[in-house]
Amino acid sequence: MIPTIEWHGNKVRMIDQRRLPLKVEWYVCADYKGVRKGIEKMIIRGAPAIGVAAAMGLALGASSIKSGSYDEFNKHFMKMADEFVRARPTAVNLQWAVKRMAGIVEACRDIPVKRIIEMLRMESGKILNEDISINKAIGRNGQTLIPEKARILTHCNAGSLATGGYGTALGVIRAAREAGKEVEVLVDETRPWLQGLRLTSFELMEDRIPVHVIVDSAAGSFMRKRLVDLVITGADRIAANGDVANKIGTYQLAILARENRIPFYVAAPLSSIDIAARDGDMIPVEERNPGEITRIGRRLICPPGVKALNPAFDITPARYITAIITEKGIVIPPYKRKIKRLFR
């Protein structure tokens, strides 16, 4: 796959995911505001990917701070950090990456600012490389849950484009294929941004993995007809008790899977787990512009003046989740105690 995001000289560039799959176009950021815009405007999306983007954006922004004084540098840096945290409130990976970068600044208060800037850039590269390695570990762990022949349903995009590379939910599917398993994938279109239709199907076709796209509301029918063997999704945030925040529509899939006795798996890195959130009710759910529903591009497709509600995510209670797949292994209920153990 083409890189999701990378350093390009002294700039950060990312694939403009709004243009895929019909056009591969780079969005180039010369300053941190460009990176922040990329996150806010869905140019880059997916919890791990926006964590990487925030790290690179902060490193880029740090290089523009014109101060040799640590206190002044730190003041400007923390202002930028706060702007990134507010860009997409649900995905905890973004907060995790910002905190990690801020930790570098805090630990280096006694060294020259110029060296701090160099260290921030190196750290952003580490975060990218670690993410790819973590995704491959998730894939290796998760593929053990996949039968030798399976039809898998997935929602939204939790692949290479949603991460630094390889993917979480799609990473498991890729690893199963690499292990010689015969898999095919049903992909929900995933309204309103159509990440499944545009991005997941694109990735699977690039890898020559058999794929069919279905409308979101068809998932239950396919499950009832026994045409789905398991469901696997990614996650934007996982609470300490195992409740999962993911793309809107995930909750109903989990209920349908339970009704039809189909395993429902979530694949995510430890950086997506928020142990400070007691349960899903503590996870903020981003409300996005209603125009994402009422328009396609600039074209209005509904009655003028109609109101729309556009939550970007929903919360799936832990009781509907068969297992959570992480880089440290597979977690099964009871989640609260076992999730806590992952961080020892």
Give the secondary structure arrangement, pairings included.
Layout lengths: L4 E4 L2 E5 L10 E4 L2 H9 L6 H16 L7 H16 L6 H16 L5 H30 L6 E6 L14 H10 L3 E7 L6 H12 L4 E4 L4 H6 L5 E4 L3 E3 L4 E4 L2 H10 L4 E4 L5 E2 L16 H4 E2 L2 E2 L12 E4 L6 E4 L2 E3 L3 H8 L2
Helix pairs in contact: 1-2, 2-3, 2-4, 2-5, 3-4, 4-5, 5-6
Structure description:
The model has no long low-confidence stretch (mean pLDDT 97). By secondary structure, this protein is of the alpha/beta class. It is globular and about 65 Å long. It folds into two domains: 5-134, translation initiation factor eif-2b, domain 1 (Four Helix Bundle (Hemerythrin (Met), subunit A)); 137-342, 3-Layer(aba) Sandwich (Rossmann fold). It has helices spanning 32-40, 47-62, 70-85, 92-107, 113-142, 169-178, 195-206, 219-224, 250-259, 291-294, 335-342, and strands spanning 5-8, 11-15, 26-29, 149-154, 182-188, 211-214, 230-233, 237-239, 244-247, 264-267, 273-274, 295-296, 299-300, 313-316, 323-326, 329-331. The chain has a seven-stranded mixed beta sheet, sandwiched between helices.
CATH superfamily of the largest domain: Translation initiation factor eif-2b, domain 2
Major beta-sheet overview: 7 strands, mixed
- Average pLDDT number: 97
Number of helices: 11
How much helix, percentage-wise, in residues? 25-40%
Write the element-wise H/E pattern from the N-terminal end onward. Answer: EEEHHHHHEHEHEHEEEHEEHEEEEEH
Q: Please indicate the percent range of residues in DSSP E strands (runs of 2 or more).
A: 15-25%
What is the 3D form? globular
CATH architecture annotation of the largest domain: 3-Layer(aba) Sandwich
Taking pLDDT < 50 over at least 5 consecutive residues as the criterion, the unreliable ranges are none
Give the tally of β-strands. 16
In CATH terms, what is the fold-level topology of the largest domain?
Rossmann fold
| Rg, Cα atoms, Å | 20 Å
Structural class: alpha/beta
Highest CATH level, the class of the largest domain: Alpha Beta
